[in-house]
Amino acid sequence: MNIPSELKYTKDHEWVKIDGDIATVGITDFAQSELGDIVYVEVETLDETLDKDEVFGSVEAVKTVSDLFLPLSGEIIEFNEALEDEPEKVNSDPYGEGWMIKIKISDASETDALMSADDYKALVGA
């Protein structure tokens, strides 16, 4: 299982890459493997400002649909439109081409509550 050490994680199996006041968000390798083949990613909150832990979209797999929870408060400034035609990128490259959204962070102190790679490994038993 791939859990890059430079990223932060949430208990909802999302990863967060922070670059200044912009956070890139996707689901982890563990999450995509649990979900199975992803057939659709829906994000209808582009250009909206949401609070941490609010639902920003959903990911649909062959077997199930899961809500996506915002790991940090902020404005959703970008959606990975490549996922509209190729949602399977979330399965094949969850930390790269399978990223989902970018957020303009509104409260940087919330990043302190995100999990380290080691904490996330403990959560999933890796």
TrEMBL record:
Keywords: Lipoyl. One of its GO terms (cellular component) is glycine cleavage complex. It holds the Pfam family GCV_H. SUPFAM superfamilies: Single hybrid motif. It comes from the Bacteria. PROSITE patterns: BIOTINYL_LIPOYL (PS50968), LIPOYL (PS00189). Its cofactor is (R)-lipoate. Residues 22-104 form the Lipoyl-binding domain. Binds 1 lipoyl cofactor covalently. GO terms for biological process: glycine decarboxylation via glycine cleavage system; protein lipoylation. The modification N6-lipoyllysine is found at K63. InterPro entries: 2-oxoA_DH_lipoyl-BS, Biotin_lipoyl, GCV_H, GCV_H/Fam206, GCV_H_sub, Single_hybrid_motif. Belongs to the GcvH family. The glycine cleavage system is composed of four proteins: P, T, L and H. The glycine cleavage system catalyzes the degradation of glycine. The H protein shuttles the methylamine group of glycine from the P protein to the T protein. This is Glycine cleavage system H protein. It comes from Flagellimonas alvinocaridis. The lineage of its organism: Bacteria, Pseudomonadati, Bacteroidota, Flavobacteriia, Flavobacteriales.
